[in-house]
Design a protein that fits this description.
The chain is mainly α. It has one domain. Helices cover 69% and strands 7% of the residues. It has helices at 28-40, 42-51, 54-80, 84-89, 91-114, and strands at residues 7-10, 13-16. The protein has a two-stranded antiparallel ribbon. The mean pLDDT is 92.
Length: 116
């Protein structure tokens, strides 16, 4: 990594070519995990932050949690007999059941991945 700046000319001015650091791709689950660590596990949060591993940890948690929610929802819907036929016959009942499944799956993910 070099310690010099490059510039480009705009009219009579030289403007530095600054590139902001890449923002981490952290979604809902990663943000929840970060907030939990900050509020309840400060030594763990600080250790991850100082070692430079926080971003990777949050991205891994976010990806794992999203996959786990999808997998749990599919399994629960299959087990409860919620099908596309039900969706075609009675959309409101299908939405209610799928919302219930989503809440249950999210609670499982919170308990097993986020709040540990």
């Amino acid at each position: 990594m070099s310690n010099y700046l490059t510039y480009h000319r705009e009219g009579d001015y030289l403007i530095p070519n600054l590139i902001p650091p890449e923002e981490p791709r952290i979604g809902l689950w990663g943000r929840r995990r970060k907030r939990f660590l900050q509020q309840n596990r400060d030594p763990v949060y600080t250790g991850l932050l100082l070692s430079g591993k926080l971003k990777d940890h949050l991205e891994d948690i976010d990806r794992s949690a999203s996959e786990m929610v999808d997998q749990l929802m599919n399994e629960m819907a299959r087990r409860d007999g919620i099908t596309e036929a039900l969706k075609a016959e009675n959309q409101m009942e299908w939405v209610q059941k799928m919302n219930s499944i989503r809440y249950r799956a999210e609670e499982i993910v919170n308990q097993e991945l986020i709040f540990v």
